[in-house]
Design brief:
Elements: E1 8-13, E2 20-26, E3 32-38, H1 44-51, H2 56-89, H3 93-108, H4 112-120, H5 125-137, H6 139-142, H7 146-154, H8 158-169
Antiparallel strand pairs: 1-2, 2-3
Helix pairs in contact: 2-5, 5-8, 7-8
Length: about 170
């Protein structure tokens, strides 16, 4: 029986390769603790985790929710700082002109920017992780086989991941 057995609070993947699992649990005193284990189906800790209902899909769902919450908190911080800076600069004519230029640029930008972004970040670990989280949230992927979802998690590039998602959507 694992150290966390019977006391799990939450479980998430701790890395973009889906190879490390972080288990948050309460110890005997009620304090929150973290136990990290490898995502190795042959290890006893992994088997104990599965025995408590934490299969791969549930861990992914929990990871997605954590990433969404972290992104929301970060966005709030950035927006608060940007608003404060904007309020400080709002009287500046240069600031107003720059904001109008940025807005026009955003409106006039073509869809090609997306392809450039994918090309430039194809093997960027953070961008690949974001893609994998997005892909695994899609209904078609959720309904896919365990092997297909596993292949997406193991993808080394965004383009290979897109190819795997395409194979699910267009069999």
């Amino acid at each position: 029986m694992a150290e966390f057995s019977g006391r799990i609070v939450d479980v998430v993947y701790a890395d973009s390769d889906y190879s490390l699992i972080s288990v948050k649990f309460e110890d005997d005193t009620g304090a929150l603790c973290v136990y990290n284990l490898l995502a190795d189906p042959d290890s006893q800790d992994y088997k104990d985790l599965e025995a408590e209902g934490w299969d791969d899909e549930r861990i992914i769902d929990s990871t997605v929710e954590l990433k969404k919450a972290q992104a929301a908190a970060f966005n709030i911080e950035v927006n608060t700082a940007a608003r404060a800076l904007a309020e400080e600069m709002i009287g500046s004519k240069e600031f107003k002109d720059e904001m109008q230029r940025d807005a026009r640029s955003l409106i006039n930008s073509s869809g090609g920017d997306l392809y450039v972004h994918i090309f430039d970040n194809n093997d960027n670990k953070d961008e690949l992780f974001k893609f994998k989280l997005w892909a695994l949230e899609q209904e078609a992927v959720k309904a896919a086989s365990k092997e297909q979802k596993s292949a997406i998690r193991k993808a080394k590039t965004i383009t290979s991941g897109i190819s795997l998602v395409d194979a699910i959507i267009n069999p």
